[in-house]
Design goal:
There is one protein chain. The chain has helices spanning 22-31, 38-47, 62-71, 143-154, 178-189, 210-217, 234-240, 249-263, 281-291, 316-328, 349-355, and strands at residues 78-84, 90-95, 101-109, 112-116, 120-122, 137-140, 165-168, 202-206, 224-228, 267-273, 296-302, 333-335. The protein has 365 residues and is an alpha/beta fold. It has two domains: 17-71, Orthogonal Bundle (DNA polymerase, domain 1), CATH 1.10.150.530; 78-355, Aldolase class I (TIM Barrel, Alpha-Beta Barrel), CATH 3.20.20. 43% of the residues are buried.
Length: 365
C-alpha cells in the first residue's frame, strides 16, 4: 500500500450496508433529502441483482451513489480461498475484517442450490469429531457477516440460477447467536428486496439448547429445525457431544416436541455415523424407540474424516445393517451422500488447515 492509499484500520473502515435494516436506510436517506423508496431499490440491487458496487446502481441518482460509496461498503470480508469439488460443491474460506476466518459452502444437487452458512467464528459445543470446535469459539458473527456468506455464494451461480435452500449448519451453534441469525434470515426470506427463500426451505441446526429452541418457537419464524443428535442415549452422547452433560436427551426431545406443536414443522434429527462408536445395531434399535412415535426425519451422515482426529467412516456392511434396522422400525430416514470430500467440505476443516498456514493470501474480495 502507498501512503496515499493506506490499508483501512478498524477506525477508518466503512460499515457494511448489510448491517443496516430497511428502516435504518430509509432514515439515512431522509437525513440527506432522498425519498424512502430508494431504500428498496438499493437493497434489491444487492440481494436480487447481485451488484457489489454502488456506482453501478443505474436507476439511482449519481449523487446518491456517491454518498453511498462514501459512507458504506457492501462486503467487509475477503475470500481467502475458494475450492471446487468434482461433484459441484464449492467452499469459501472468508477472512473477516478483524482477521477471523469462517467457512461457507454451496451445494449443487439436481435443481437445488443450497448454501451452508456459519453463525460463529469457531464453536463452543465441543463435538469431538468436528473440526469447527477444536479451538473453541472466538465470537458471534454479525447480521451482515451472515448475509455476506449467502451473497458471496450466490455470486458463484450462473445468472439464470438462484439460491433455493439455506441451512444454518456451518461453523458455530446458531441458537447461541439466535438474534443475529434471525435478523439475517428475515432478509433471506423477504421476497420484496431480499433473497425470497421460503421459510420451509430454511433450516436452523442446533446441538440442542432447550431454552433457545423455545425462544425460536416463539419468534413467529417457522423455519425447519434440525437437531444434531449423534447418539441414542445420554452416556454415548455425552462422550461425543460434551455439552450434553448439562442438558440431556430427554429435555432436548421435549423442547423439539414443543417446537413441532408450536410451528407444525416436521423435525429433523442429524446423526453422524462413526465407525465402532454409534453405528452398532443396538444404537439403531435405540434410535427406533426414540423416534418412531415422532413426526420426524432422521438424516444419517457417514462421517467425513478430519485429518488429525481418530474417527473413521463405518464399513459399508455396518451402514447397510444400520439402515435396515431403522427402516424396518418404521423410521423416516435418509442416508445423506457425503459431498466435497476432496475439498475439506466438512465444517471447519479448511479453516483449521489454513490457520496453521498464516501466509494465506486473499484471492478476491
Amino acid at each position: 500500500m502507498t501512503p496515499e492509499n493506506p490499508e483501512p484500520t478498524p477506525e477508518t473502515r466503512k460499515p457494511s450496508i448489510l448491517e443496516q435494516t430497511e428502516q435504518a436506510i430509509v432514515e439515512w436517506l431522509g437525513e440527506r433529502g432522498f425519498p424512502k423508496y430508494r431504500a428498496r431499490q438499493i437493497l434489491s440491487w444487492i440481494y436480487q441483482r447481485r451488484l457489489d458496487t454502488f456506482h453501478d446502481m443505474s436507476d439511482l441518482p449519481k449523487e446518491l451513489r456517491t454518498q453511498l460509496a462514501e459512507h458504506f461498503c457492501i462486503f467487509t470480508g475477503k475470500t481467502a480461498e475458494s475450492q471446487h469439488s468434482e461433484d459441484g460443491t464449492e467452499k469459501l474460506l472468508i477472512e473477516l475484517a478483524d482477521g477471523g476466518r469462517i467457512e461457507c459452502v454451496l451445494l449443487r444437487d439436481g435443481p437445488r442450490r443450497s448454501v451452508c452458512i456459519s453463525s460463529q467464528v469457531g464453536c463452543a459445543m465441543g463435538c469431538v469429531f468436528c473440526a469447527s470446535g477444536l479451538d473453541g469459539v472466538d465470537r458471534n458473527l454479525t447480521r451482515g457477516e451472515i448475509l455476506e456468506q449467502m451473497l458471496k455464494l450466490q455470486r458463484l451461480l450462473e445468472p439464470e440460477e438462484r439460491l433455493s435452500h439455506i441451512v444454518m449448519m456451518g461453523m458455530g451453534e446458531p441458537l447461541a447467536n439466535l438474534q443475529r441469525v434471525l435478523e439475517a434470515l428475515a432478509v433471506a426470506k423477504d421476497s420484496d428486496f431480499g433473497l425470497g427463500i421460503s421459510p420451509r426451505r430454511i433450516t436452523i441446526s442446533t446441538v440442542g439448547l432447550p431454552p433457545a429452541i423455545d425462544k425460536l418457537a416463539g419468534s413467529n419464524s417457522p423455519y425447519q429445525l434440525a437437531i444434531s443428535l449423534h447418539a441414542p442415549n445420554d452416556e454415548l452422547r455425552t462422550r461425543l457431544v460434551p455439552v450434553n452433560r448439562s442438558v440431556g436427551i430427554e429435555p432436548i426431545m421435549a423442547a423439539a416436541d414443543r417446537y413441532f406443536n408450536a410451528t407444525g414443522r416436521r423435525l429433523t434429527f442429524e446423526y453422524v455415523l462413526l465407525k465402532n462408536l454409534n453405528d452398532s445395531p443396538a444404537c439403531a434399535e435405540q434410535l427406533v424407540k426414540l423416534l418412531r412415535h415422532r413426526n420426524a426425519m432422521l438424516n444419517v451422515i457417514p462421517y467425513n474424516p478430519v485429518p488429525g482426529l481418530p474417527y473413521e467412516t463405518p464399513a459399508p456392511e455396518a451402514i447397510h445393517e444400520f439402515r435396515r434396522i431403522l427402516m424396518e422400525g418404521g423410521i423416516n430416514v435418509m442416508f445423506r451422500q457425503r459431498k466435497g470430500n476432496d475439498i475439506q467440505a466438512a465444517c471447519g476443516q479448511l479453516r483449521r488447515l489454513r490457520e496453521r498456514e498464516p501466509h494465506v493470501v486473499s484471492l478476491s474480495n
